[in-house]
TrEMBL record:
Alphabetized InterPro entries for the sequence: PLipase_C_C
Organism: Chryseobacterium formosense
Pfam families: PLipase_C_C
Protein name from the UniProt record: Bacterial phospholipase C C-terminal domain-containing protein
GO MF term (any one): phospholipase C activity
Biological classification of the source: Bacteria, Pseudomonadati, Bacteroidota, Flavobacteriia, Flavobacteriales
Amino acid sequence: MKPPILQTHHYLVNIENNEISMMNFKNSEVDLIVYDKNAFNTKNYYFSYKLHSNDKLTHPISFGTYSYEIIGINGFVRKFKGKKKPEIEVILTNTSSKDEIKIELHNIPDENYTISLENLYEKTKKEIKSASSKYDTVINLEKTKGWYDIKIKTENNSWHFAGRTEH
């Protein structure tokens, strides 16, 4: 009997340009489910997507009070919640290293704007103050063998990223 061939996946899901952006960087297909938690008990609660090889899809967001959860394979979860349209843009990407992720914050209004970054695996939380409109950080995932569970919060919005890096 031949051993199974494990397929690695490399796909990203973020809020970009006021919509949920889903990108697949590998040749294998990826199934994603988008839940609009505010539309529970309606026909617009559940959306199923198949990201084909090197594909990009988007899903519209109804801003105001919003709550979206995106589920993928291998423990991949994204949760985007807020009371209004986010003032900042939060992007999580995989780095070229298998055991690192990069978090980019864009459009930070000023240095008094409060942003918290919590690493649930490391049990650490820090306040981010940036004199510039951008902030980047790389998180090493060697201790957790590529697994991550990160929450970023502002006064009105939260981004929750969980999963495992694969290349």
